[in-house]
Write a structure and sequence with these properties.
The chain is built from 23 helices and 23 strands. It is an alpha+beta fold. The chain folds into 3 domains: about 35-235, no CATH class; about 260-355, Pdz3 Domain (Roll); about 355-710, 2-enoyl-CoA Hydratase, Chain A, domain 1. β18 (about 475-480), α16 and β19 form a beta-alpha-beta unit. The radius of gyration is 27 Å and the shape is globular. The two termini are about 35 Å apart.
Length: about 700
């Protein structure tokens, strides 16, 4: 593999997912949307950052690769410039509360010039717009302070628009002030619903907006360039993006699943860096003093280094201060949860294995075999398709790999004499293309796994070339609408080969494109041993297809047995993203299905599951939650009359929060391998029915219909 290119399949979030906001978080999105991108720098005399020394060189390279390498081969023309313009403004001001319409009109004079400017590597438009953005922030902050000190009327019958597509920029400063009055009133009502005292609510919101303003003023040239160029790349398709050097570093860490640090997952809350989770077995976890929800207010290097104040500092910069060479000391000034007096903890950095992102296995029991003993099901929880790219390029024999980890788990399952393997790909957003192919090969013998078409319409078939399998017994694959890309390659191949049963949401995410990661420093300075870090472009270069010839693009992989789920109804699929590449199909590859899943079997499994779901209390409650969500999703406005607001809040907020907490728990460092909730339990009951059908133990299903699928 070329050391400057890495094939990558992964679902990435666009700068602004226009239709994916809950009504209750829509008004808060500005305060968190750009949080991971902005860094702490010394304030310059001007409002915004000064242009970076590499801006022109990077911009010219990105433009060149987009026109030459992108799957669509679409020139950067006026059409793309118009999309770019809209996306950039939306990224900065999605709720249209900072800019005035006159600002947008002034910017629009250059809308059709953006394609001409980029040909010269000229990104001055980004600095012009961002400087005006900071000017408007500076004007809005005194309004916020004044409104928070004012007594607002919560018995006034009025509403606020919460759909970004339905709102408009204010025509005048007076209209802008009215929008902010409603916005602060909304914020205070939210705090009231969350049982926050009036005084605490005002202090919290004041701190939130001051912190936001400070972070926006700390934006560096690298980060502004990233926002601007990602607005360009996503105008071609939602998965092509530019990564600044800092973002590239974080991406590489996520792929190799290790770094040096203290082992804490951090988040930013109203100006404070808060501990979200501790990595099990990490340095902080072993030290024992740092706890979840503690606030880090200062960071010092070594035993005597100055403790730097990190209140209101960008989260990425706080993380950079805490990371460091293993064996070195970092001192954290911490306000423990529930206390007001800070303490200083000295922690020795260590190598952190990000096991929360690695494959893990667990054996569970479900149902009964004909002899009365329970079925033993080995569950593999695989959150991503990872590979340590650097170690692989260097030829290290033991580089980190999702396929290797799954093979080891399968070996353990065989020793424990499991009857079936359940591969849990729910919320697996993808990763390495080679890993998806090799992992599929653990379950099928040699044959095509995926077909890939490039911009010249050439189709290449990628086969599993390794004879034999790591697991030849019954197989179930669990998916949901967040299962994307590499997950869809595996699920699609397993389904096409009739090798196993796919259970879950109606369909997977629907991302059927392949990206290559091009390191710009290595590309531009190939002859230099130590190329400068200029970031990278992750560019859509190909589209992939299942062995059957169907693309997963937009349509995803449809489950063999569908289960009701709130995620079925969330606007988070590929088809909900702007500028998604269309669906198509090609000729089927030459492969032989195994016949381990038959249509009569599927009909029986669907029927038995539907009968259980129809009378299950928790699924019935879920149906009510879905109905309420669908009703609320149609709302374009929210009442600011307190009695109506409280009613709307209580009509579905609890279920929404429960779903958010579940996703956070299942994605955190201490996520369980198996969560025995009602959804998973029904998937396992379907699995038990499947095993019984394979064994000929389901009344009404003739043995002749299952004889070809015996394990």
């Amino acid at each position: 593999m070329d050391h400057t290119r890495t094939l990558f399949l992964g679902k990435n979030r666009p700068l602004c997912q226009r239709h994916g906001w809950s009504p209750w978080c829509g008004m808060m999105v500005v305060a968190c949307l750009l949080l991971s991108l902005w860094a702490s720098t010394e304030a310059a005399e001007q409002r915004g950052p000064a242009p970076g020394p590499n801006d022109r060189q990077i911009t010219l390279a990105v433009k060149s690769y987009l026109e030459r390498e992108h799957f669509l081969r679409h020139p950067i023309d006026d059409e793309i410039a118009a999309r770019w313009f809209d996306t950039f403004l939306e990224a900065l001001d999605p709720q249209k509360v900072y800019f005035l319409q006159s600002d947008v009109d002034a910017f629009a004079a250059k809308k059709n010039l953006l394609d001409d400017l980029v040909r010269r590597g000229d990104v001055s438009f980004a600095y012009e717009v961002y400087d005006r953005f900071l000017q408007r922030i500076d004007e809005r902050l005194p309004w916020v302070e004044k409104l928070l000190a004012t007594t607002l009327d919560f018995n006034r019958d009025e509403s606020i628009v919460i759909d970004p597509d339905e709102t408009t920029w204010a025509q005048t400063p007076a209209e802008a002030q009215e929008k902010w009055r409603k916005r602060i009133k909304y914020d205070l009502l939210v705090q009231k619903m969350e049982k926050t005292s009036p005084q605490e609510a005002r202090e919290k919101l004041g701190r939130r907006y001051r912190s936001f303003s400070k972070r926006m003023h700390q934006t560096s040239a690298d980060e502004l360039l990233e926002i601007y160029l990602v607005s360009l790349t996503s105008s071609l398709d939602p998965h092509t993006s530019f990564m600044s050097p800092g973002t590239l570093e974080n991406f590489e860490i996520s792929m190799r699943l290790q770094l040096d640090g203290i082992g804490a997952s951090l988040k930013s809350e109203d100006g404070y860096t808060t501990v979200a989770e501790l990595v099990p077995g990490g340095a902080a976890d072993k030290d024992g003093r740092l706890k979840k929800k503690d606030r880090i207010v200062g960071v010092g290097q070594g035993s005597e280094g100055e403790v730097v104040d990190v209140v209101d500092m960008n989260l990425n910069d706080v993380v950079k201060l805490i990371r460091g060479e293993r064996g070195s000391v970092v001192r954290l000034k911490v306000i423990p949860v529930g206390k007001n007096v800070p303490q200083v903890y000295d922690i020795v950095r260590a190598k952190i294995e990000l096991q929360d992102s690695a494959a893990r296995g667990e054996v569970i029991e479900q149902g009964k075999k004909p002899d009365g003993s329970p079925w033993r099901i080995g569950v593999i929880n695989l959150p991503s398709f990872y590979m340590d790219m650097d170690a692989a390029r260097q030829g290290q024999a033991d580089y980190k790999s999702s396929t290797r980890d799954c093979r080891r788990i399968l070996d353990e399952f065989r020793q424990k004499r499991v009857d079936c393997v359940a591969l849990d790909l729910r919320s697996n957003g993808g990763g390495s293309l080679p890993e998806s192919i090799s992992l599929t090969g653990l379950f099928i013998d040699t044959g095509p796994v995926v077909q890939i078409k490039d911009a010249d319409q050439r189709v290449q078939q990628y086969d599993d070339l390794e004879p034999g399998v790591a697991w030849d017994g019954p197989l179930v694959v669990l998916v949901n609408k967040f299962s994307a890309s590499a997950s869809e390659i595996v699920a699609g191949a397993i389904q096409d080969y009739r090798r196993g049963l796919v259970i879950g949401d109606e369909t997977t995410h629907g991302k059927g494109t392949v990206q290559s990661l091009l390191d710009l420093g290595r590309q531009l300075f190939q002859r230099l041993p130590n190329a400068p870090s200029l970031g990278a472009i992750k560019i859509t270069m190909q589209q992939f297809y299942r062995p059957s010839g169907l693309s997963t693009q937009l349509e995803g992989v449809k489950s063999d047995v569908e289960l009701p789920s709130i995620t079925n109804h969330l606007p988070v699929g590929e088809s909900d993203l702007d500028n998604a590449i269309p669906f198509d199909q090609i000729d089927a590859a030459d492969f032989v299905p195994t016949g381990r899943v038959t249509e009569p079997m599927l009909k029986m499994l669907r029927q038995r599951s539907a009968e259980r779901v129809a009378v299950d209390e928790e699924f019935l409650e879920l149906a009510d939650d879905i109905a309420r969500y669908e009703k609320r999703k149609q709302d374009k406005t929210i009442s600011l009359l307190e009695s109506d607001f409280a009613k709307q809040w209580n009509e579905g907020k609890a279920a929404e929060e429960e779903e958010e907490e579940k996703q956070e728990k299942d994605a955190g460092p201490r996520r369980p391998v198996v969560t025995r909730d009602f959804y998973f339990d029904e998937a396992m009951r379907i699995t038990a029915d499947y095993l019984a059908a394979l064994a000929g133990g389901i009344p009404g299903l003739a043995q002749s219909e299952t004889s070809s699928v015996a394990p």
